[in-house]
Amino acid sequence: MTLQPVLIAGEWRQADSPAGSFQAMNPTTKTAMPDEYPVSSAADVDAALQAAYEAVVALRSIPASKIADFLEAFAANIEAHIDELVEMAYQESALPREPRLRSVELPRTTNQLRQAAAAARSFSWNHPTIDTKTNIRSKYGPLNGAVVVFGPNNFPFAFNSAAGGDFAAAIAAGNPVIAKANTGHPGTTRIFAEAAFEAVKATGLPKSMVQLIYRTPPDVGYTLVSHPLVGATGFTGSRNAGLRLKAAADKAGKPIYLEMSSINPVYFLPGALEERVTELAAEYAGSCMLGAGQFCTNPGFVVLLENAQSEAFIQGVAEMFRTKPAGILLSQRGPGDIADAIALMQQHGAEVVVGGKEVTDSGYSFENTLLRVSGDAFVQNPEPLQSEAFGAVGLCVLAKNEDQLLEIAEHLEGNLTGAIYSHKGGQDDALYNRIEPLLRTKVGRLLNDKMPTGVAVSPAMNHGGPYPSTGHPAFTAVGIPASMIRFGALYSYDNVRSHRLPPELQDKNPTGQTWRFIDGEWTQRDL
Predict the structure, then answer these.
(1) 8 Å CB contact between 435 and 408
(2) Which CATH superfamily is domain 6-13+36-260+475-485 in?
(3) Does residue 22 contact residue 36 with C-beta atoms inside 8 Å?
(4) Which of 169, 206, 411, 449 is deepest in the core (most CB within 10 A)?
(5) In angstroms, what CA-CA distances link 232 with 177, 351, 461, 472?
(6) Alpha-carbon gap, residue 380 to 2, rounded angstroms
(7) Is residue 437 reached through a cis peptide bond, with omega within 30 degrees of 0 on the bond before it?
(8) CATH topology of 6-13+36-260+475-485 equal to that of 265-448?
């Protein structure tokens, strides 16, 4: 069987001395997809990095408006291939064609590409800063190397390595991208890369602006993120893989931005349950089971005060878990990984309320599962009881009193999100005021009376958080222009003549609307 080609140095070609091959699996049928893809050797990685550096050099003289043109053209190309993309992603991931892929995730993908284009065109991400007294001026600019993007399996469009949020942010910041496809959806990634390469050619950007490899052996992956020609890496995936890549990148002094595991704690305060327990049980169950629980913001950890209302909540959720069919998981590893996480929690005091078994009669699947554990047991064993089960799995922790609610918060690891549900009339305000300061330091995004599964592409969004949800708490993987800062370097100019400066640092505002920090004040004025 002929292997699918890689995209390197502006050419779709066969992999150089591949280290093997693989096929994507259809999660619904548990059968291999027809196309076979190469496992790239160090030869492909070296060639891609050398070609990317040629693009880095060429980009130094290319205006930001041309990069914006590419992002907009790419978004249009994606929309022209919508049927092909949706069908391929459905076959590779089992995610619903409608509404998930066609009406939700694909528009989000093109929207963030267009937001990135607008940021590049307006200089909004650059933070132009001018101190007239010293005549020192600074801005963010591109890195001196390619950005490598590792995409996850659970968002084949919006986080795709050749089209998703990290890709858009890296390109808009002025960097070429080497996309490392997720093994779960190589065909989807190939279609995106084809559409991106057509946009590269149409807009006249360097031919190596976008490159694609599908998989590498582990040692070659470590070389990829630590190579002298790499500018930075964006990774979304498991904690184990992320930390291994981080160790290699850190050893070489190369930036790597990780989004990893998160259980997203949700506090249901007693007044909220007393007020609307049935409604909250339904809201939680729906969120936890959405997409078979395969969201990095899945609310997998619930904290309750031990009382009758909490018992009613648990029984209500259990009944909904029991009656709704289990969803299809993304990969053949899914059921085993979930079973391992549940077993670990059981070894440390958790009890299964409902579910707990693999479903074997249709696709890769696992029963919707709810567990419970005492607050005492959690405080004694916080680490194993915060194991991420990447599916429709929830753990309810029952605190014996209000003080233990706070103690549980103190033992939480870093998470992407955390939520607090409280009484609408203010009955829980005193308790909220005690819990919130603790929870606030453990999460990137704090929610009130809202489930965390939706991640809006908003300039104010933080899709990040303290370790181990990410590798660095100061950055976000979603939200433009903030997500672009990861892939930029701070450029400072001291006493440089005005006509030699980048447009956004010259005396005249380049757009008339760009916000610049001049002498301690944000302004749109010219100097």
Answers:
(1) no
(2) Aldehyde Dehydrogenase; Chain A, domain 1 (3.40.605.10)
(3) yes
(4) 169
(5) 10, 43, 22, 14
(6) 55
(7) no
(8) no
Q: Are strands 256-259 and 351-354 parallel, antiparallel or unpaired?
A: unpaired
User: Is there a contact between 190 and 12 (Cβ–Cβ < 8 Å)?
Assistant: no
Dist CA 101 CA 452 (whole Å): 20
CA distance 296 to 469: 9
Closest CA to 56 of 247, 189, 228, 190: 228
Question: How many of the other CB atoms lie within 10 Å of CB of 28?
Answer: 15
Taking CB atoms within 8 Å and a gap of at least 24, the contacts of 511-515 are: 511/122, 511/123, 513/122, 514/122, 514/123, 514/124, 514/128, 515/124
Beta strands in 452-509 (DSSP E): 488-494
pLDDT band at 181 (very low <50, low <70, confident <90, very high): very high
pLDDT digits (tens, 9 = 90+) for 13-70: 999 999 999 999 999 999 999 999 999 999 999 999 999 999 999 999 999 999 999 9
Q: pLDDT tens digits for 231-272?
A: 999 999 999 999 999 999 999 999 999 999 999 999 999 999
Residues known to be catalytic: 259, 296
Q: Is the pLDDT of residue 1 over 80?
A: no
Write down the residue that tokens 């050749």 correspond to.
162
Distance, in Å, from the CA atom of 509 to the CA atom of 502, rounded to the nearest integer, reads 11
Q: How many CB atoms lie within 10 A of CB 382?
A: 17
Q: State how far the alpha carbon of 264 is from the alpha carbons of 67, 294, 377, in Å.
A: 36, 13, 19
Q: How many CB atoms lie within 10 A of CB 503?
A: 16
pLDDT value at 416 more than 80: yes
Residue boundaries of the structural domains of the chain:
6-13+36-260+475-485, 265-448
CA neighbor of 233 nearest in space, from 297, 163, 126, 161: 161
In terms of Cα–Cα distance, which of 490, 489, 484, 488 is closest to 166? 484
The pLDDT value recorded for residue 433 is 98
CATH class name, domain 265-448: alpha beta
Q: 365 pairs with which residues across the strands?
A: 328, 359
The structure tokens listed for 144 are 């001196």
- Residue 366: other Cβ atoms inside 10 A: 29
Q: What token pair was written down for 182?
A: 């997720």
Dihedral over Cα of 378, 475, 85, 39: its sign: negative
User: Residues 6 or more apart from 270 whose CB is under 8 A from it?
Assistant: 305, 307, 309, 310, 428, 431
Mean pLDDT confidence for 274-280: 98
Distance CA 418, CA 408 (A): 13
Mean pLDDT of the chain: 97
Reported for 125-131, long-range contacts at CB under 8 A and 24+ positions apart, including other chains, are: 125/172, 125/173, 125/480, 125/481, 125/484, 125/485, 125/488, 126/504, 127/517, 128/504, 128/505, 128/514, 128/516, 128/517, 129/516, 129/517, 129/518, 130/505, 130/516, 130/517, 130/518, 130/519, 130/527, 131/519
